Amino acid sequence: MVARKVSGQTIPRVTATNIINWSELNASSSFVPGTGIFTAPRTGTYTFLFTFDFASTVINDGSLVESQFFNLTTNTVLARVYKTFGQSMNGSTAAGEDGGASRPTQAGGSSTVTISLAAGTQVVVRLYHNLTSTGSGVPLRVTANPLDPANSDDGFNNLTIIEH
Fold it and tell me: Nearest 5 degrees, angle CA 24-CA 28-CA 34?
């Protein structure tokens, strides 16, 4: 199964949020694009590859983004992948940093996990972050025109699920 995000979604600060409203590129009856729920068709081993990119924002030093592969059947996190951000453009005047300038930066990354699932297990990909210092969310970077292959905002948020 292969899907990409082409519709906007804002991820709230410090709230694990399901990634929903995918555009499925390689249809599978095991994946519901609107909810982002994958249901394992058989007991076996599955690899999930998730890439993400947030829209530009001022990022706090020492912040993180956590990709979660969440089992809806048991309400547990099957796997977590962390991406941390050290020095950013947050306006700090500390020596060696950005000289007090506050500039937007982009947070993005990829996560790959291989896990064993029982038939019927429902899994959704979630994101958790503390990128900003306020309670506001940060939107995912998505294309305004999914039909334009030259669009620079296209192709940053993708999900691939492989059954072994």
Answer: 45
Region for 147 from its dihedrals, namely left if φ exceeds 0, alpha if ψ lies in -120 to 50, beta otherwise: alpha
- CATH number for the domain spanning 42: value is 2.60.120.40
- What does the block give as tokens for 123? 């899994």
pTM of the model: 0.83
Dist. CA 13–CA 151, nearest whole Å: 28
pLDDT at 96: 54
69: helix, coil or strand? strand
| Distance, CA of 127 to CA of 11 (rounded, Å) | 7
Total H helices, total E strands in the chain: 0, 13
Pairing type for strands 158-163 and 108-117 reads unpaired
At position 109, the amino acid (one-letter code) is G
- Domain total in the chain: 1
Containing domain of residue 159, as a range?
Answer: 2-163
Least reliable range by pLDDT among 20-29, 33-42, 72-81, 88-97: 88-97
**Residue owning tokens 């519709």:** 7
Quick: pLDDT tens for 30-47.
999 999 999 999 999 999
